[in-house]
Amino acid sequence: MTNVLICGIGGQGTVLAAKLLDAAAINAGLTVHSAETIGMAQRGGSVTSHVRIGENCWSPLIPFGQADAIIAFEMCEAVRNLDYLKKDGLVVVNRKIIRPVNSILAGKNFDEGEMLACLKSRSCNVITVDTDSICSELGSSKVVNTILLGTAVRHGINGITMENVVEAVMSSVKEKFVDLNIRALNS
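Given the sequence above, the corresponding structure tokens read:
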């Protein structure tokens, strides 16, 4: 069983990333179960997707302490969902920090160094990705999801290859965006 938690803010593409991972698992001949919490997505709220790959899965939700990987589209969301990560699980996190509205109103700031220290206290396998720079190079800010998914697959999601994900992109993404998304996967 491989458990992957994908988290971010509504509108960042977390749900598509989960659907691509689901399709990649199916392409690899694996059993997959997934569930999303997307109720606040339209308001910029937290969005999480649970993806469970393998046999003998009785629930689509990942129990605390059982995620093999967290793919976080935003650093605060990585910290918020850290209880799901198993000891020394993989964390792929976007360096971007999006401050919640309530913290802006309260005048609170978030420190990247403190958040990274928190993540590294739970895992020695934390990979930060500067998606803003990569998106700038690719000419689109709409591929953060495939950048992070590609990074996670390259660093090890059991049973999933980059070829499985490319096949998922080709069958799930509008044709005019396939090339861009494949370049993002490989960046």
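The radius of gyration is 16 Å. Try to locate this feature in the token string yourself.
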